[in-house]
Structures
1.
Amino acid sequence: MPGGQRNPLSVTKLVEKVADAVHTATGNAHDLAKVTKSIIEDKLDVPCVDLVIKFIGASGIPKLDVVGTADPYFVAKIDDKVSMVSTVKMNTLTPVWNETWRVRNVPITADLLVEVLDKDIGSPIDDFIGKFKTSVAAGAKEVEIEGPLFRRSRGTFWLKIDSTPSSDPPEPRYLFDGPIRYSRHLSPTVGRLTNLDDARLYSTWKMYLIGVSIYFKEVYQHWNVNYKAAQTIFGTGATSLAVRAGIQAGHKLLYARSTSNGFGVIETAADVLKLFHGEKLNPKGIIGSDQEYLPVQDQPTSTHVAPNAFQTTQTQTPLVHRVKPAVYTYIISAEDDSMRFSETGAAFFVDFASKHALHANCCERVRYSGEFHPRPRAKDGAWVGWQDFNDSMPDETVDWEVLIDNNSGTYSPDKAMLPTLQALLEHNFPGFRVQALDREDKELTKSVQACRDYALKYRGVQAKHLQPHLQEGEESLMKQAVANGAVPNMQINEGDIEK
């Protein structure tokens, strides 16, 4: 089969033989193979290509659970340098993905490794279906999925690779080039509540950005050694070790891949705007597509006209389809170039020493971090901000922008990098204006306050929702992590919680 053939230019077989020969001396042939392959590629000045990989689908996947069929997804990696995770296809043994992955400046000797897994709801570990490895040579590929026992066949996978020579001057190798995909995850605390009318407050988003290494190059933001909460997290004592364990356990719960996750792709300004739409839970307690929202008569409406706003006809507008005035906490990860964020008042921040460390999975450094919020702009430039907006204006009749900052005590990002941050996000949010301001800028303070005031006055947001809090009967994320045995029981002083 074409997918099973090795690239004739690949050095992998040679490297594996060398690794086998010295296995008894080194004790780790796999690591030696990777190092040797990298050295050979550098010495041979191996040509690079830009790849467009389309993962089509699979068939013949075995049923692993007693009840139901399977909820398959896959994880693809190129030489362990760059990776992507697919959507989960529910209740099928013949999943169809048709998902595209673009990666630039990949050595022609590279290998594509794909692992296929079955999402196991309620289990910390998903079932392993099988894997396969193939070259990055162009063409359609039909590859056998190899199972864990005696290379037993676990089905067939179809994909197609297009390849073009990389441009000069050379870019960083294994450069992710899109599409800009994101996933949305509901906090595990949301399932314990009833009559919840703001699902966004219990969601986290993970979005993979293009060009982070080009814009930021070798610049990272280390944790702030002068910040008390950061000292509590990243210290060397037993207490800090326990705090880190709790944060990492909480992060895993928040960003777990599930069949209830939402997925999307950013291609236009309208796609960016849709990220900020307010939503409600449907009767099943799951955030659905546009066709699965609650009936209009069950949704909150607004007919107010804000002071000094354009006087237009007042109409009842379902707020689930409107941009929500809210402030978000974000980090840009140093691990995988993803942007991770949630509403700043999310309840799952309770009991955690740092919002940003929770999003960053307790990493000692990030690319950048802070807060952001959407705000409206008049198309003629007459005004900017929520203070001059009213719900009688359809969202489509005004321009929108993201105002982003460096408001993070945990990592204390360098304000000199704000122009770089702005350029990166404008590149990833096509047609959408981005403005980056320092956390001490008076315009930023005024804009944040106007955003929150509008939410309080006209969108039914309560003051307590602006800060992390627990509703009656709700268990904190930290308590769930302790209950699951992921972290020893501990107490965090209120003074250690990031404000």
2.
Amino acid sequence: MKKSRGRTDRKRRRKHLQSSVDGVNYSHKLEYIKLKKWLKDRGFEDSTLRPAQFCDTGRGLMTTKALQAGDLIISLPEKCLLTTGTVLSSCLGEYIIKWKPPVSPLIALCTFLIAEKHAGEKSLWKPYLDVLPKTYTCPVCLEHDVVSLLPEPLRKKAQEQRTMVHELYMSSKAFFSSLQPLFAENTGTIFNYSALEWAWCTVNTRTIYMKHSQRECFSLEPDVYALAPYLDLLNHSPNVQVKAAFNEQTRSYEIWTNSQCKKYEEVFICYGPHDNQRLLLEYGFFAIDNPHSSVYVSSDTLLRYFPPLDKQRNAKLSILKDRDFLENLTFGWDGPSWRLLTALKLLSLRADEFTCWRRALLGDVISARNEEQTLNITAKICHLLIEETQRVLLQISQLKRKKENLKNHLALVEALRLEDLKILQKSAEILCNLNMATA
């Protein structure tokens, strides 16, 4: 009797451990039951993946069996994919075909998503639409107060993203109006800015790459999007490798893993070797301890430590600009990048060393003094960025207390800034060791 109770306790503990460490299985939830049935009707065979909620990544997919490198994770039939072909075969097709100038494949997909969402119960895609996020955390969705706390150049790119989506909306209004015969309500209320923002984020964050042949009814932008229900629940990790492509023989989109995964663990795919700023800009999230992550140094910060009276200053800047050495200057987990050190090395050249600028760009040692000054200025820039990051983190914590409605978005930027701080502190440590070694 006693032995039996011990075994039951162990089972209970194991079950608790499984749900807290690996995730809580969501297969029983009605929206996922409906989605799986909808997919099955379209030829999708049940895989070993189950929808689940995870502590670190939120919603994702867990595996019910251990996966080995070379295993097929998921195979989604063509009938399950939402592409421009799907849009053209819908009631929107004839309106897209006759509209001039042609709409882009992106706008076609956005229009379809908005129209289907509006259709509600009547939509054939309702089971998929029901599991799509209601809101997104891409910079285009963030309030101005939150965007202003993003690091450069992400702040600038976020503003460009917002402008681009707004222009997309303005340039598509006439096309949206042409769809009026399809709707009882005014198209202006259906296809409003917030509806387009949601549809754009859905396409931008969730599509897989799938090349389609060019159609005359679309503009010349590449038609490379496909929305992949269920498959798009897979989250990104920079530490896994996968092979993903449309299989012409099976007429399915397939993902094969090159990594191992234990039973009941979350299954990840990799969107590419993106740093956290790129991940946040394109997908609205970032990865903790991302090996590809960087903190960017703007050209303004770079020049703060060089005397404006340096007679070669303009010539040095011209050399760096012509050779694209004023962009993508970074600190990473392994310290300052080669590009950053090289730019600073060239800027640190004395008048009598200036003729050696080509050698400096190749990474050659010009003089002990030049090496020392380069490291000193790099360390100063690193400490400046640490102070700036700490200042912004203080602002965020104050804003979180004042603006309850922005709490989630502020927490996202705060986490990104804390990750930046870890990178900069690691770089400062590396630079300190380098300075000691060269002293």
